[in-house]
Amino acid sequence: MSRKELKEPDAFMKVGSKARSWLQDNVRVVLIASGVALVGVGGAVTAEYLGGRGEEEASKDLGARLKALERPVSETATTTGEDAPFKSAQERDETVAKSMSELRADRSGTKAARTAVLVLASAQLRLKKYDDALTGFADYLKETHPEGPLRVAAMEGQGYAHEGKGDLEKALASFEQLERDNKGEFLAGMGLYHRGRILTLQNKKEDAARTFNDVAAAHPGTEAAKLAQARLNELKAQGVVLPEPAAPAGAAADGGGAADAG
């Protein structure tokens, strides 16, 4: 794989952003390589930082600052003001990174400040400041509850950052951790999907095909499963022999039970 391919965002990576309810780069972050780009922030973030009344001011501050992620990007925009479009995605992400850094300093110790770490790391990722992003994602994972709903986004972010640096082995390890640790619906199956992507980049296309095949079985109906099927179609077009479609989780057991009953 060329150096350019390592640095440029994967087309499927951009589409993969649609699997995130609170990340969108068009959302994408992400999230990531803009896999964790945050443009819309939904219920998961609210659950992460809203708590006691002592957090109210900090949460309001965070909510106000996150509005910058909803502002469009337009090189030709002529309007001015707080809601005016950014001239570029870079300008947006630099603004978000600065704002989140300020919030962390001003609201230190609050849940809002901890959430800001994730938003900051995601912006740094999109700015290709991969080492800074990795530090931020690691800090977020260290500071948040083990069952926090946004931890999986940080794990995915770590994988994207390693990938952006060209360290595919570490990226693979991060995505595999995401698959192991993710017990919820948020980003369901994305760890396994990303594992297949990395195997493809490593030119292990048969292994990648088996992995993509497993996504549909383990996580049927998810965005990850749709992305995996698109990848399988792409590999097939390249002449890779695909495995037989795997049965969805639980189907084999149900079928066996029916046979026994008969």
Relevant terms:
Serine Threonine Protein Phosphatase 5, Tetratricopeptide repeat; disordered C terminus; globular; 13 helices; 60% helix; disordered N terminus; 2 domains; 262 residues; mainly alpha
Can you lay out the helices and strands and say which pair or pack?
Elements: H1 3-7, H2 11-16, H3 43-49, H4 56-66, H5 89-106, H6 111-126, H7 130-143, H8 151-165, H9 168-181, H10 190-201, H11 205-218, H12 223-237, H13 251-261
Helix pairs in contact: 4-5, 4-6, 5-6, 6-7, 6-8, 7-8, 8-9, 9-10, 10-11, 10-12, 11-12
Number of strands: 0
Q: Which ranges are low-confidence, i.e. pLDDT below 50, for 5 or more consecutive residues? A: 1-44, 256-262
Helix fraction bin: 55-70%
Domain count: the total is 2
Largest sheet, in brief, is: none
Shape summary: globular
Helical segment count? 13
Q: Let me know the average pLDDT.
A: 78
By secondary-structure content and strand pairing, the structural class works out as mainly alpha
Order of helices and strands: HHHHHHHHHHHHH
Strand content: under 5%
How far apart, in Å, are the first and last alpha carbons?
53 Å
Radius of gyration: 20 Å
